[in-house]
Structure formats: C-alpha cells, structure tokens
C-alpha cells in the first residue's frame, strides 16, 4: 500500500488513537504512517454489532415470553458465551445451561445469583427482577 | 506515604501490533536500540495463517493471520540470547504484589490482558478478546502508568481496572500473565543476522510445511473452500457475518491479514540491509503485493456485509481471490526458502 492510499476514514478507534500502519513512500521504501481508520473495517465492526444487538433483542423476547431466564439475556448483553460466563462465575457450563431455564433460575440461592450479578456488573435485584 | 514508582526513562513505542510493540519497547529499554517492530515480528516468525478447526469466536470462524500469542516475544528474545521471565498467578493479590515489586525495581513489564473491561478502549472494540498486550512502567498512587503499543501516547489504569483486565476470563485467559527480559547477554551484528535467518526459515516452515490443510498457505485455500459453501449452508445473513468476522480478524487494529503482510515486507527490507542481500529487498515486494490483495479481498467482502453483493457468484469471486493470495504467498515463501541464507 502506498502512503497516499492510506485511508483516513474515522471510526470508533479514532476517538482513542490513530493507528500505526506500514506503507510505501515515494522512493518505494517502507515507512510508518498514522491512519484515522478505514470504512471497510468500520462497517465490519458495525455489522458485528448489528448482530450482537439482534441477539440481545431476541434474548429479551425469550425472557419476556418465559422461555429463558434473565441469565440468558445478560449473557448476550455482555457478549458472553457459556465458556466466558463459566470463567467469570466459576460454574461449569453444564450448570449454566440449566440456569438458563426459568424454572431452575427461580430456585437459585442468593449466593449463586451474586456470582452471576458480579459477572454481569449488575445487582442481584436487577438480575432477579428482569422481566424482558 | 509516597507510593509513586516510576521506571527509569521509559520510552513509549507505538506499533501496528501489540505484541510486536511490547517486544520492541522492552528490548529497546534494555539497550537494544536497533530493535524495530518489523525486526521483532520477523525474528519471531510472526506471519501465519490458520483457520482453527471446530472453534468459533464471537459466533464466527476462528481465523488468525499471525502466529500464536506470546511466540513473537519468546522467539525474538531467544534469538538474541535474552533471558526472559514469565509468571502467571492464582490470585489477583499475588499478581499485583509481584507487579509492584518489579516496577519498584525499575523494571517495565509486559502484561497480557483482556480487552472487554479495558476502560480506555472504545466500547465498540470491547469484545472478549484476551490476548492483548501492554506495558506497565510505573505507578503514581492508585494509578498505573500504561504504555499500550496501539496508542499514540501513554495512558493509565487504576489498580482495580488493571487487576480486572489481567484476570479476564474465557479462552486464552491471561491469569495475570506478566513477562519481561531478565538478563541481556552480549549482542553483536552476527547474532542479529543469525536471528533474522532463523526467523525467516522458521516462517518458511510454518507457512509451507506445517501438517494439515487448515494452516499455513494451505489454510487460506481451506477458508476459500468454506466461503464457497457458506451462502447455501448458512444463509446469506450468517454468511455475511462470517465474512465480516474475517475482515475484523484481518484488519484488527492496524494489522491483521493485510497489515501483517506489509509488516513482513518491511522486515525483509530491513533484513536486506542487515544481510547485505538485495534479493530480500526484491522479495519484500511479493509480500507488499500479498498485503494489497488481502486488502482488495476485504473491500469485496465489505460489499457482501453491506448488502450490496448477494449472489453466489460474489462468494465464488471472493473465494477465488483467496486462492490467488495463497498462490502469491506460496510462491513468495518458496523463493525465500531457496535463497540459501546459510545458518
């Protein structure tokens, strides 16, 4: 990539920093230059977030309809999957899967709920009372 | 009580990729002034391609355009006879105590962190990605001085914020992973030249001769075969998301597929000077071409996830572009392999 072709199309990262890139200068030698961003990247990130938002909305509906427990909603909201949530709570994925059922969730002790609340950065009340 | 600790004159280095940046800055701090990001990347045989089987990341294909996390630092140090210390911890308290001890001794250290809770990152970039690297080089009260190589300038994190990202959970969980050069031996130009040659040869091996069809240059073909099937198998929506994921992996913060190829081109250009060998400078062009082709493929993929391109023939064209990239990279590495650079 030639230096003059380096895109300068601001994306989310440009609020924090410009990115260092390796480009070819006029003499055909490599040098570094700073880029504000590239629309192709920005749109890839946007499309990933559209997908996240769709999943969160579906999860919300599933909780509202009584198909899933609030754990499912907050897991999606925090971009987690079973592996990541297992890491943050210390529960095995097998148990987390059970806790996604509203009937099992209702019976959870406050101690277990607290672990979920910590993982999600919310209070136990917020977790318990989420209705979708 | 004065809790301010600062290591001697630490100089921040901005880099295209975090691990290269940490490696370069730490080695320069220890007097290896010749170290540059391309040199660290090349000596560490950083260029790679792999589509990891049976694994999905953020619900998409797991693709990496560089070697495994930690390898660049480890290999580059080893090539230069630099002894490295690394530690992981069972508790946040122990991890913080050790960190405080090192920086009070005036030693800047590399830390592996997760970006999900990394407060200074823009929210849009905060996924559960646990192989980010930064340098801690001092402490003022509750605030740690942070040199994050992707940034133009230094920043800081509170003790709590830093503990949290050092103990991020999920795949590749850092577990407080901390690393730093322990002892530097005698370094001369011969050792550097040797390191360059070893780095190139190992990279040739990784890209051309790694077993299996999902890694090295053959991995690129593996992905292209998948892409041909995605539209029918997954539906257009999911297939577009998958392509978006490739571009995100490819162009993730400065580097990725395109960027790493340019970086390797820059490395070969520097190597040509170190080894007094113009053939390397010529081969640098091949990697520049590969980088440009990766960027071209990203633009085409963007057409799909923006909803402008929707036909099977578009997926076929993208797959063909990847087959072409494989050819270019394969040929470039074969040429490198035949150079006879000595030991």
From TrEMBL, chain A:
Record domain HTH cro/C1-type: where: 106-127
Source organism superkingdom: Bacteria
Cross-referenced PROSITE patterns: HTH_CROC1
Q: What is this protein called?
A: HTH cro/C1-type domain-containing protein
Q: Which organism is it from?
A: Dyadobacter luteus
Identify the taxonomic lineage of the organism of origin. Bacteria, Pseudomonadati, Bacteroidota, Cytophagia, Cytophagales
TrEMBL record, chain B:
Q: Which residues form the DUF4872 domain?
A: 161-336
**Superkingdom of source:** Bacteria
Q: Which InterPro entries is this protein grouped with?
A: BtrH_N, DUF4872
Q: Extract the Pfam families matched here.
A: BtrH_N (PF14399), DUF4872 (PF16169)
In this chain the Butirosin biosynthesis protein H N-terminal domain maps to 17-149
Q: What name appears for this protein in its UniProt entry? A: Peptidase
Q: Which organism is it from?
A: Dyadobacter luteus
Q: What is the lineage of its organism?
A: Bacteria, Pseudomonadati, Bacteroidota, Cytophagia, Cytophagales
């Amino acid at each position: 990539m030639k230096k003059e072709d380096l895109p300068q199309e601001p994306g989310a990262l440009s609020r924090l920093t410009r990115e260092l890139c390796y480009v070819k200068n006029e003499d055909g030698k490599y040098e570094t230059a700073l880029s504000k961003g590239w629309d192709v990247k920005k749109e890839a990130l946007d499309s990933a977030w559209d997908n996240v938002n769709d999943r969160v909305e579906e999860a919300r509906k599933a909780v509202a309809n009584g198909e899933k427990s609030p754990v499912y909603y907050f897991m999606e909201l925090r971009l987690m999957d079973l592996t990541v949530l297992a890491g943050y709570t210390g529960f095995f994925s097998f148990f987390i899967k059970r806790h996604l059922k509203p009937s099992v969730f209702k019976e959870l002790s406050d101690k277990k709920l607290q672990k979920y609340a910590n993982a999600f950065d919310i209070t136990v009340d917020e977790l318990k009372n989420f209705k979708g | 009580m004065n809790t301010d600790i600062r290591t001697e004159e630490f100089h921040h280095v901005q880099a295209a990729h975090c691990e290269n940046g940490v490696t370069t800055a730490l080695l320069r701090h220890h007097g290896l002034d010749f170290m540059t990001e391309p040199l660290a990347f090349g000596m560490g045989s950083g260029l790679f391609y792999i589509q990891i089987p049976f694994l999905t990341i953020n619900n998409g294909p797991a693709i990496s355009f560089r070697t495994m996390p930690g390898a660049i630092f480890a290999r580059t140090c080893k090539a230069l006879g630099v002894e490295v210390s690394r530690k992981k911890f069972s508790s946040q308290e122990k991890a913080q105590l050790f960190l405080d001890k090192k920086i009070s001794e005036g030693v800047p250290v590399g830390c592996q962190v997760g970006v999900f809770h990394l407060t200074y990152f823009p929210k849009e970039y905060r996924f559960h990605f646990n192989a980010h690297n930064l340098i801690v080089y001092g402490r003022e009260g509750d605030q740690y001085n942070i040199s994050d190589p992707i940034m133009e300038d230094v920043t800081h994190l509170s003790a709590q914020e830093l503990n949290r990202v050092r103990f991020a959970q999920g795949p590749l969980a850092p577990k407080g992973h901390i690393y730093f050069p322990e002892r530097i031996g005698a370094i001369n130009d011969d050792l550097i030249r040797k390191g360059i040659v070893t780095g190139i040869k190992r990279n040739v091996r990784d890209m051309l001769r790694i077993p299996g069809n999902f890694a090295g240059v053959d991995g690129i073909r593996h992905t292209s075969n998948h892409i041909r099937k995605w539209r029918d198998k997954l539906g257009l929506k999911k297939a577009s998301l998958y392509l978006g994921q490739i571009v995100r992996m490819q162009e993730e913060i400065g580097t990725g597929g395109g960027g790493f190829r340019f970086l390797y081109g820059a490395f070969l250009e520097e190597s040509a000077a170190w080894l007094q060998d113009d053939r390397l400078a010529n081969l640098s062009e091949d990697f520049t071409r590969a980088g440009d082709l990766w960027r071209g493929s990203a633009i085409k993929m963007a057409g799909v996830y923006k909803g402008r391109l929707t036909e099977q023939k578009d997926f076929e064209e993208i797959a063909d572009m990847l087959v072409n990239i494989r050819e270019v990279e394969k040929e470039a590495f074969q040429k490198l392999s035949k150079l006879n650079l000595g030991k």
